[in-house]
Amino acid sequence: MAKLTGKQVGYTLVCLLAINGLPAQVLAVEAPPSLEAVMEAGSTGLNLDSEENIIRWRSEAQVGFLDSRGKTESRTLNGRLRVQAETIDWRNDTRANFLHTQTDDATTQESLALSHQTDYQWTHQFYSLAFAGYSFDRFKTFRHEYDVVGGLGYRIFRDADREWDLEVGAGIKYTERNPEPQEKDWSPLGRLASKFRQELSDDLEFQQEISFNRSQEVENLNIMNSFAVKANEHLAVSLSYEWRRTEDLDASEAVYDHITTLNLIYRWHP
After folding, report:
1. Distance between CA 264 and CA 79 in Å, rounded?
2. I need a surface site. Which of 21, 34, 75, 210 has the fewest CB within 10 A?
3. For 163-214, how does the pLDDT look when each residue is reduced to its tens digit (9 = 90+)?
4. Distance between CA atoms of 235 and 266, rounded to whole angstroms?
5. What is the annotated signal peptide range for this record (predicted)?
C-alpha cells in the first residue's frame, strides 16, 4: 500500500468536509512538518561551534634546577605553571610560581606565589578585571600577603606577533609579618601593571611584565624580562631575569631580590 504524505492527508480531509457543507477555507489545515524538517531547522538554529562558545586554551609549565658544589653546596629548584582560557569576551589567567634554595643542607630561600585574573572585554581595547593573589616568603618581613583587586585595563595593541596591556586597579591587602608576634593588618591597595609580548622571530619570543602594588604596610615592585627559544610546537628554553623590591613602609626598609633562571618549558594547547 502506498503511503500518503502529510499534505495529501490534509487535502483529503478538506475535500471530505467541504462535501458535507463546511467551508474549505475555514477547515484547511496545514500538515505538521516532518521529523526530518524539524531536526534540520533545529540544527541550523543552534550552532555550538559559534565564536561566542569557543574556548581557546593555552598552558605551559616551566622547571629549572641548579646544583652548585665547592666550598659550599647549593641547590636551587624553581617552577612556573600558567593556564589561560579565552573566549570572545572573557579571559582567565591562572599562575603558580615557586622557588626553593638549599645551602649546606639548610633552606635559605623558599617562596610561593599564586594568582588568578579574570578580564571582561567591553571594547576592542578596554576591559574590566578582577585579580586575586597570594604570596608566601619564609624569610621575608611579610610572610603572607593576600591581594584582592578590581580595575580597568587598556590594550594598546594585539596581533599575532605582539601584544601590550596596561592595567590599573584598587582593592584590599592582608599582610602577616614574619617575626613574632605575627602582626596581621588589612589596608587599602593600589595596583599598576604592564604586560608586553613580542615575537622577535619565528623561534624567539620576548616577554616583559611589570607590577607595582602599594598599601599602607608594604610596597612591592616586580620587573621580569624573559626570552624563550622554541625547539618545536611544545618545547622551549627560557632565560629570565626578575628584579623584586619589597619595602616595609613602617620601618622604611627595603629588600631587593635578583633572580636569574634558565628553565625548560613545555606548552600544550588542548
Report:
1. 9
2. 21
3. 999 999 999 999 988 776 667 889 999 999 999 999 999 999 999 999 999 9
4. 5
5. 1-28
- pTM of the full predicted structure? 0.77
Q: Report how far apart, in Å, the C-alpha atoms of 179 and of each of 39, 112, 147, 217, 248 are.
A: 69, 18, 21, 15, 13
Kindly list the domain boundaries of the chain, sorted by start residue.
6-45, 58-268
CATH number of 58-268: 2.40.160.40
Which of 197, 152, 147 has the alpha carbon at shortest distance from 174?
A: 147
CB atoms within 10 A of CB 140: 20
Q: What value does the mean pLDDT take over residues 76-89? A: 95
Name the nearest CA neighbour of 177 among 232, 117, 116, 251: 251
State the Cα–Cα distance between residues 150 and 130, nearest whole angstrom: 5
Neighbours of 129 (CB within 10 A): 21
Q: What is the DSSP letter of 252?
A: T
Report the relative pairing of strands 142-158 and 204-215 from DSSP bridges. unpaired
C-alpha span between 219 and 247 (Å, rounded):
5
The answer to whether residues 78 and 96 touch, using CB atoms and an 8 Å cutoff, is no
Cα torsion 153, 257, 94, 226: sign: positive
Q: Determine the Cα–Cα distance for residues 75 and 105; give it in Å rounded to an integer.
A: 9
The three-state secondary structure class of 232 is: coil
For residue 74 the three cell numbers come to 647549593
